[in-house]
Structure formats: C-alpha cells, structure tokens
Design a protein that fits this description.
With 441 residues, the chain is α+β, with helices and mostly antiparallel strands. The chain has three domains: 35-87; 117-204, Pdz3 Domain (Roll), CATH 2.30.42.10; 217-438, Alpha-Beta Complex (2-enoyl-CoA Hydratase, Chain A, domain 1), CATH 3.90.226.10. It is 27% helix and 23% strand. It contains nine helices and 21 strands. It has helices at 3-30, 35-55, 74-85, 144-147, 169-173, 249-264, 281-291, 342-354, 429-438, and strands at residues 93-96, 117-123, 132-139, 155-159, 162-163, 179-184, 186-188, 194-196, 200-204, 217-223, 226-232, 268-272, 300-306, 315-318, 331-335, 359-363, 371-373, 377-379, 382-385, 387-392, 407-408. The strands form five sheets. Strands 2, 3, 4, 5, 6 and 9 form a six-stranded antiparallel sheet that branches. Strands 10-11-12-15-16-21 form a six-stranded mixed sheet, sandwiched between helices. Helix 2 packs across helix 3 and helix 7 runs parallel beside helix 8.
Length: 441
C-alpha cells in the first residue's frame, strides 16, 4: 500500500467511525419523545385557532399560522388571528375568565365589581386651586356610592385622606374595599363664580356586583302645553346576565314603561341612548316597534349575515306588529361616544323607516359598530367574544361607521358645570336641548 492509499484508507475509517458515533449519539440523545411538552405550551392557541375558524365571521380567511405564533399569550394570538383575517373588524375581543371581569365595561363603571359610579377627573372648577377632583357623571341606585349619598354632579376631593389625582382615581373609585371619602356640591355666586356649597365626609362601602337597570328612567312631561315622553336605556337586554338566561325582567320593565307612555299619548318622544353600549337585536327590535307607525311595520328592521358555516342564521328582522305603537313620525335621540351596538342598529333602522330627517340626534357621535360580537366559548382561562355576523340596515350596508349627531352637545364641557342634573329632569342639559329642538326655541 503506497502512502496515498494509506491516507485515504485512514480517512475513510475515521469518518466511518464518526458517522457511526453520530448516529448512536443521535438516537441516544433523542431518548423519550418530549413533543408533548411543546403541545402543552401551544394547546391554548391550537384550541383558539379551531374555535375562531369555525365561529368567527371572517373564519374562512384565517390561514394556518407560523408555529412560533402558537407560543404567544392567548390575548396576543387572538389579536393575530383577527388582524390576519380582517382589516375591518375592530370589535372582537378576548377577556380573562373571571367572575369579576365585566365584558361590557363603560368608561370607569362595571357591573360585576363596582361602587356603582362613573366619573371623570377634572380640575377644580372653582379655580381657587389647580387640584384634581372626580366628578360623578353616573350613579346606580342602591349601589355603595348611592348609599353613601353620592349623586350625579358631585365632586370627590379626598379618599382616605389622599387627594384625588388623575393617576389614583381609578385605584380608589372603580372597585375595592371600604373608604372614607370627602365630596362637595357646586353652585354659582351672583357674580357667576363657581363655589362649593358644602364639604361632606362619609364612608363608602366595599364594591360589589351592581344590578344596573336597563331602563332606569321613563317619564312624560308637560312642556308648553304639550306632552313629551322620555325614556333612557343603559343596555338593550331582556335580563341582566347575557351568558345565563334569568328570564325577562328587563323586557317586562320596558313593556310596562312603554304602555304607560303610550297611555299618556305624547306628541313627541326623546330616547336617551347616551349610556347604551350593548344589547340584543330582539330588544332593539321591540323598542323600535313601539315607536314606528303601524303602517310602517311591514318594513325591514335589520338583517344579519353570518359566515358560511352558520348561514342558516342569516335572518331578516321586521318590526313587531304585536306591540302597540306610539304612531310617531319623528323622534329625538340622545347619543354619546358610549352609544354602541344594538343602540346604533336601532337608530339606523329608524333612520331607514322614518327618514334620516325625522330622527334628530343630539349629543356626541356614536361608536359605529357594524358587527355583532358574541360570547362563544370559554377555555384555558379566557372567554372569546368574536364578531359573528354583520348587522345591516334594510339597504344591506355592512360598512357603515358612527352616527353623526344633528346637534352637538358635550355635557362634560367645562362651561356646563351646573347642567349635569339627574337623568329625566327636563332641565338636564341634553334633555333640555332636545326640548328646545322640538319647540324650535
């Protein structure tokens, strides 16, 4: 064997040994199959992918995701699926599955763990200081805040000896334990200067589940010799809990209130939806059916369009002919940036049926929700609320945006410190604005 042959033979033997050793090490290192560990790290998102492909309005558009994305948190993966499937859906959401997690929080108020108030942090309106205060904008009867003597348009300055600031207001006033609070009422001097009329210190009980009435205020007022009806809705639902049916307590309340209003035979109607941020199609349909003239009840109220797997749910809703009508040809609707979902679908239906010129909107532009979100399932510590269908008006429009007000009024503007009166009071800013439009004042 010459030198070159010896070298090649040695090289071949050495590489053969390395190859054998590599194969042995490969199988030795592989050992137990550990792929299940990766499955446990991605199971939550594998589950979510299947649910969204099936239930989501745009589920057909969801493509298989890069494997790395399955290691994301549930919240981030949900957002990934929604954004990859649709550029028009800003309504789908996911929540932690907790008894204290409210799917319909409105500003600083929630239904499940609350003092029963909503508020805005403002600068001292008397201008004697530059300090912050919490102005109560909404309060639920029989809540801890109501029991403490708080009311709409009271101003909280201290909690447990600590002055309210924009950074600590949510910590102290959304939910929690009992507190000692100081609050004030406001008035003006003859010079027009704002002053505090009192300083009251009370105990605020711990937060709790608050049952917010869906229709807290209804009244018929006599104004300039004419009867004008007023109805406020905070949510268009038949019962308090959307996930478990508790009967028809809110639906029955609406029917009772509307029958009283109809018996008064008012000439005009003010519908206050400024706080109405969710609801069902059926309840919106019921309320609208009390308003439109009987002759109009043959018309379409709205339509729903679901994905291809749930096309059997596609439906055309008409007005309910079984309920008595106010026989109105014109209505005044109070809105805000909280007005959303079923409230908007009701307004759009009235605009189609009565004519846009006969649905006079007051306050602030609405949210513009064109899809219905729905709780579909809970799992892996989360609840999914994807958009499940388009909600269209009679013209089949699926891409509408917010409803624009005819008369813009901001009750939170600093020049309206005294105008935030109780809902249903004809002197309350938006109620009085509606009256002035009715009577062309």
């Amino acid at each position: 064997m010459n030198k070159i042959q010896h070298i090649l033979t040695s090289f071949s033997m050495e590489n053969t040994a390395i190859l054998v050793l590599s194969v042995f090490l490969l199988f030795a290192c592989k050992g137990e199959d550990r792929s299940h560990e990766y499955e446990s790290l991605t199971a939550h998102n594998t589950w979510m992918f299947g649910v969204m492909k099936d239930k989501y309005l745009f589920g057909d558009n969801i493509q298989e995701q890069d494997y790395k994305k399955y290691f994301q948190t549930s919240t981030n993966f949900f957002k990934t699926l929604v954004s990859s499937a649709s550029t028009t859906d800003s309504w789908s959401y996911i929540l932690v599955d907790s008894a204290a997690t409210d799917p319909h929080v409105r500003n600083s108020f929630n239904h499940l763990d609350s003092y029963g108030i909503d508020f805005r942090v403002v600068t001292d309106p008397t201008k004697t200081t530059s300090r912050s205060m919490a102005r109560i904008t909404y309060i639920v009867d029989e809540s801890p805040a109501a029991d403490a003597g708080l009311s709409r348009n009271t101003f909280i300055s201290f909690v447990d000896g600590t002055r309210i600031t924009s950074s600590n207001a949510s910590k102290y006033l959304v939910n929690g334990t009992n507190h000692k609070i100081i609050f004030h009422h406001i008035d003006t001097l003859e010079t027009g200067e704002y002053v505090w009329t009192d300083t009251i210190e009370v105990d605020l009980s711990p937060s709790e589940k608050v049952v917010e009435p869906a229709f807290p205020v209804s009244t018929v007022v006599q104004y300039k010799g004419t009867k004008v009806a007023y109805l406020m809705s905070t949510r268009l639902v038949p019962y308090p809990d959307e996930e478990v049916s508790y009967g028809t307590v809110f639906e029955d309340d609406l029917k009772s209130k509307m029958q009283i209003i109809i018996s008064e035979n008012p000439k005009d109607f003010i519908l206050d939806l400024r706080l109405c941020n969710y609801g069902t199609i059926d309840m919106a349909q019921l309320l609208a059916s009390y308003i439109v003239p009987t002759a109009k009840k043959e018309e379409v109220f709205l339509k729903t369009i679901w994905n291809s797997r749930y096309a059997e749910n596609n439906r055309i809703y008409f007005y309910d002919k079984t309920v008595q009508s106010l026989e109105l040809s014109r209505i005044y609707v109070i809105m805000s940036g909280n007005t959303q979902g079923a409230a908007e679908w009701l307004i759009r239906a009235l605009q189609q049926t009565l004519g846009t010129e006969n649905v006079i909107t007051i306050g602030e532009n609405s949210m513009g929700q064109s899809m219905m979100t729905q709780f579909v399932v809970a799992g892996y510590g989360h609840k999914l609320y994807p958009s499940v269908c388009h909600v269209t008006d009679a013209s089949n429009n699926t891409s509408y945006s917010s409803i624009t007000v005819n008369k813009s009024v901001n009750e939170n503007a600093t020049n309206n410190w005294l105008e935030m009166k109780d809902f249903g009071n004809p002197s309350e800013l938006l109620f009085s604005t509606a009256l002035s439009l009715i009577f062309d004042e």
